[in-house]
Amino acid sequence: MENLLEELTQLDFAAVDLALYLNTHPNDENAISLYNSIITKADSCRTKYEKNFGPLCSFRSFSRNNNWTWIKNPWPWSTDFYSKL
Amino acid sequence: MWIYEKKLEYPVKIKHTNPTLAKLILTQYGGPDGELGASLRYLSQRFSMLTPEAKATLNDIGTEELAHLEIIGAIVHQLTRDLTEEQLKASGLDAYYVDHGVGIYPANAAGTPFTAAYIQSTGNPAVDLYEDMAAEEKARKTYEYIMKFIDDPDVMDPIRFLRTREIVHFQRFGECLMYVQDEMGKKKVFPIENNNPCKKNCNCEEN
Lengths: 85, 207
Ligand SMILES: [Fe+2]
Prior knowledge:
Bound molecules: fe (ii) ion
Shape of chain B: elongated
Oligomer: heterodimer
Radius of gyration of chain B: 20 Å
Mean pLDDT of chain B: 93
Largest interface: A-B, 30 and 30 residues
Strand content of chain B: under 5%
């Protein structure tokens, strides 16, 4: 789990940072194609993560179980989050 | 509309508690240059911002600051778990404890509650951006002061991440200021702002 979470965290951060850059450099085509390639990777990483460890979002993520996993998974501010997922 | 994701923008995995350090770091939660003030400042100012670049920047940095608020909360929470009575008494967290236990309360390092008086929203896009650039520098300064008290790499790692974000945000706000000044220089009429002190609404410089 750690590796998948780490990968997703890194991809999402790259997207956040690039998006801020693009807000003030909206015509930088290289940055846009880099942004798109990161978003594509992050999307597939997010799907993989949710399939294995449960929903990331309480109102966008598909529920794969008949019981509501959202309330059961550890929260990211506890150290359990990194060990018990 | 906001979307919450069940993960941190940057991981916080602290093995050893340290209530003394927790008390200092709490100021970035609810202190004068903290993440709560940062977020509220930008998310409030965006309504009167000018130019597409600057509106998007305030919206998105204001959002990122909420993720930073969560990181600070996680650090303070993990630094104060499973405290013994002796630890608590020796740590300097005792005064905070009698009011808040080890709950996370938006206050500065000395315990003063968060106040909206830490921030401004002036309706003047250039003035607000000057404040925002100063705010990012003040937050960076606070992280640097805090870093003098950290000897645990588990704590230093996320604090260092947050410090570098202040530098990036400062840079982006500076770019926004150029767009905004350019736009304001076009002498468009501002419906809510009349900078000319002359009441007759002519172009003279009279008071
Ligand atoms: Fe910031």
